[in-house]
User: What shape does this take?
Amino acid sequence: MNNKVNFFTIFLVAIFYITTCYSKAQAQNILDNGDFESSPPTSFGNNIGFSVTPWILGPGNSSNVVRVDGPLGYNYGAAGPQSDASGITNSPRHYLDITDGSNSFYQSFIPRCSGKVNVGGFFSTRANASGKGSIEVRQGNGLTGTIVGQTIPVTLLGGNSQFDAWTPVSTQVTIQANQPYSFIVSMDNNMNFDEGYAIYDFNCPTQPDPNEVDLCCPPLFADEFKDMFSIQGDFQNHTISFTPTLAWRKKMQAYANWRFATNPCFESLSFILTIRKPKAGTLDVFDLANNTALANLWMYFKPNDPNSNLYDGSGLANGTQQFAGTFPSNQWHRIHPSLGFSPSSCSGATDGVCDPWKKGFNYSLQVVQGKRSTNAKIQGKMSEIFKSQNK
Assistant: This one.
């Protein structure tokens, strides 16, 4: 009997999620700097008046970006949580407080697609006191447009602000493509906010109009990125390969050509893929430590290559390339890219490549309740395996 797995069987589960620029929603976050980690302050504790761009403050009191690093780090006391809402507790993180009063703040966005969008974030208290806040979406830019859906209030009772868990608050609204909207957060003096998001409740293509030029990031779009990976093995061990498409290579070449034109010092754009295991003592927490890297693939683009070729140390790298080694299937792994221009001595060698770490994805392969043997074969694109969990 052929024991090759049908990807669309209900008995097999492939758990797979993409992290674009957001760690909570596990999907494409329309908002920028929802976690207040973009160019954050370097001083622990209160940073009153610190910029929260592109968030815009209303007419109330000023911002206070709080820097903390978990229970074993800086002691912020009862003034607020010892960790932010991300769940990361071993490195500096940040959240927003309003200084000595209340205010509303918002971020405007223009959606690419029409449909339902989930919006929300996380609230916590300060100084062990009760506090109130809310989230809402309004039409247009600013605080005064027509409300879309309804305002979602939140009231948190006083407790132990240093240790109490963050409280998630969310709602779903229906929006129209190419129309401006504003995601608005309001809170009083005793509240904090973190990890704001607005994510599509459906598959909105992440690839922009080809006539648009995004000078911020290389063209690494979540759906297209994961579609270039394939898996082969069973539910005990597997191998992973990467096959760059011509369409993707052309977009990367166009981006690289633009960067080469702006800085002739650059000689190549390196593109590195890394598979990682979780941090020691965890099941699904990842970092960039050297001892968590299991394997990598190194490739690069040359300036103004008319054929948009990828290269590696042996020559052309346009075809399928396999990561060295096999990996345990019933365990979380993370695959992520790294980018940089060479030589590194050139000014701005790492500027304008955003955070490739956030362009990666975590995955695990599992058999549900022993419905199939762990020796059952599995083979194909990761994107197809991902689809199987919904069939």
Residues 12-19+214-388 form one domain. Residues 246-262 form the longest helix (17 residues). The longest strand covers residues 115-125.
